[in-house]
Design a protein that fits this description.
The chain is 42% helix and 27% strand. It has helices spanning 6-9, 14-19, 38-43, 51-56, 60-76, 120-131, 150-153, 160-165, 168-171, 173-189, 233-253, 275-281, 285-289, 293-297, 305-315, 366-416, 422-451, 467-476, 499-515; strands at 24-27, 34-36, 80-88, 91-104, 107-116, 135-140, 145-148, 193-201, 204-216, 222-231, 259-264, 270-273, 323-331, 337-349, 355-364, 461-464, 484-490, 494-497, 522-529, 534-540. Helix 16 (366-416) packs antiparallel against helix 17 and helix 18 (467-476) packs across helix 19 (499-515). The longest helix is centred in the C-terminal third of the chain and has 51 residues, at 366-416.
Length: 565
């Protein structure tokens, strides 16, 4: 049954009310009396149970805002809408109520209310918008706010009715001046715009990250601009605090002659580096920051890449008290190499306790490395000199021993055979004199070699080569032992050269042949000569020269390891 209210019963629209196919009612101007149609009673029977019963069906979170908007709408005496949750059976459902003033001769005499229950899909969309953790709004092309979600209303600056009933330029003139260029850009281009704005809300400046995007119908017609905004004030403050800390750290570390850097292990990007890090490479900090990862790696020597990459992987597994140390080389802008000794440790952990930020320090050890390399080279040279000295002493002994043996042999002949002829004695004394002179020149040459001076060669004297093999036979006759010293084919030959050096060479070859030929072996001396060259040959039946030593036979003072033959 409908309640009988004489104040409303005489209103001409009462008949229309009952003819409506949607829940509707008439309400007095002061909101005290109501007349419901049958559709509303069938849909919401609770309306017949009184004011308290109806109020109990409202969602507790909507009562305050609904009451305020209802009173504001009545006071404005213009058509307005309300959205709220109302319990139907056991569940709350979103209800949209529209109240329109009923006028007679231009004067409002009552309110006509209609109720619409949005379809489930629309409700899901509405719930999504209202539940979003960011501020959402939609502007039409006249800058009227057609939609705002609960996050916008939380600020308390305006009610939903105020947002929906006024242009944004009227509600927030200062803020509108800031955002209008971006709204216009979306309306003109149809493209999304991202922006960060500092907006005054309450007593403080708030930073917002805002995305404005085009709102289009299913057929692609642009009907407005959507806005999604998020308060990033805390993030901006944290970033500013970090920048302040890094600025302080920059001032403190710029005077230190060591590289200091902080690296985000998750992104691989540098968070901080001091001025010395750039100066060491010959760049500015901004130039280094602009380098790509590939450009950064190119400043390390290619052969150092494997162990540097291994170190980078180890850093990600370090604990707070663990460090990694290493030496590596870095290329300066002008191309020269810099030796560094570096140390890496974990500077900060993330929420899961995993390494997040690493700190690296390095000092320039180029001069120390140069000193080390010079010391190593000096030690190598000293070793070579020591080995050369040993070979020199050995060769000097060998060179001096040969003429002494010749002199000794001739003197033994004189002592042993008293009846030799005067002619033979003179010949022996002449040979001893030659060997003495050669020994003197040899000692002089050896002294020159020991002092590092050059030994002069006399190449302008005529030398009859065919006499040298005969001299060698006489020289070694007394010291040949059980060896057979044989004179092979010897052709007449005259050359320009140093007779002492040539004989010294032949003596050395013959002495070596005797030394490395077993007893009973044969050493043969021969000489062949043409118009353009002469070949003096000393051949033996001894152990020969190891193949690995052939290329070294002309090295000064070199001696083969005979234990391997």
């Amino acid at each position: 049954m409908m309640p009988k209210t004489t104040a409303l019963a005489g209103i001409p629209v009462v008949g229309v009310l009952h003819a409506l196919d949607e829940p509707a009612w008439l309400m007095s101007l002061n909101g005290q009396e109501c007349l419901y149609n049958q559709k509303l009673i069938d849909t919401f029977p609770v309306v017949l149970e009184g004011r308290e019963a109806k109020a109990a069906c409202l969602h507790p979170q909507d009562i305050s805002s609904l009451t305020a908007e209802f009173q504001q709408g009545l006071a404005a005496k213009q058509k307005f809408s309300l959205r709220y949750r109302y319990k139907v059976v056991e569940d709350y459902r979103w209800i949209e109520t529209t109240l329109t003033p009923v006028q007679v001769e231009g004067e409002p005499i009552a309110w006509l209310g209609k109720i619409r229950i949005p379809d489930p899909t629309a409700l899901l969309h509405e719930a999504l918008v209202q539940s979003a953790p960011v501020r959402m709004s939609v502007f039409d092309q006249a800058y009227y706010l057609k939609l705002v979600n609960a996050r916008v209303l939380e600020s308390g600056r305006h009610t939903l009715a105020e947002y929906q009933g006024s242009s944004y330029s009227e509600l927030e003139p200062e803020l509108f001046e800031q955002v209008k260029p971006y709204l216009d850009q979306v309306l003109q281009t149809g493209e999304t715009v991202n922006v960060e704005l500092q907006v005054p809300l309450s007593d403080e400046e708030i930073w917002w990250q805002i995305t404005y995007f085009p709102v289009k119908t299913s057929d692609g017609q642009l009907i407005g601009v959507g806005g999604i905004s998020q308060n990033i004030t805390r993030t901006r403050r944290d970033m500013q605090a970090l920048e302040d800390h890094l600025g302080f750290l920059q001032k403190v570390t710029d005077g230190i002659h060591a590289t200091i850097s902080l690296t985000d292990l998750k992104t691989g990007k540098s968070i901080f580096r001091n001025q010395f890090s750039a100066d060491l490479m010959g760049y500015t900090l901004s130039e280094i920051d602009a380098m790509t990862p590939e450009e950064g790696w190119s400043h390390f020597l290619l052969e150092d890449h494997p162990h540097l990459q291994e170190t980078a992987a180890r850093i990600r597994t370090l604990g707070l008290d663990e460090t990694v140390e290493q030496e590596y080389r870095l290329k300066h802008r002008n191309g020269h190499l810099i030796w560094l000794w570096g140390k890496n440790t974990i500077f900060a952990l993330d929420e899961q306790g995993l390494p997040h930020i690493s700190m690296g320090t390095a000092v320039d050890i180029t001069e120390r490395k140069k000193a080390e390399l010079q010391l190593q080279e000096s030690q190598r040279q000293l070793q070579l000199l020591s080995e050369a000295q040993k070979r020199f002493v050995s060769e000097a002994s060998h060179e001096i021993k040969t003429p002494l043996m010749g002199i000794q042999g001739h003197l033994e002949l004189l002592l042993r055979y008293q009846d030799i002829t005067e002619e033979e004695k003179q010949e022996i004394l002449q040979d001893c004199h030659k060997e003495t002179l050669r020994l003197g020149r040899l000692v002089t040459d050896l002294l020159g070699l020991a002092r590092g001076s050059n030994v002069s060669l006399t190449l302008e004297a005529e030398v009859r080569l065919n006499h040298l093999p005969l001299d060698i036979l006489r020289t070694f006759e007394s010291s040949k032992g059980n060896h057979h010293l044989v004179l092979g084919e010897v052709q007449d030959c005259m050359v320009l050269g140093d007779p002492d050096r040539l004989k010294q060479l032949l003596v050395i070859l013959t002495a070596n042949a005797l030394k490395y030929t077993p007893d009973g072996g044969t050493i043969t001396l021969s000489l062949t000569c043409t118009d353009s060259w002469a070949e003096m040959r000393v051949a033996d039946t001894g152990i020969g020269i190891h193949e690995a030593d052939l290329e070294k036979v002309f090295d000064r003072f070199y001696r083969s390891d005979h234990s391997q033959l």
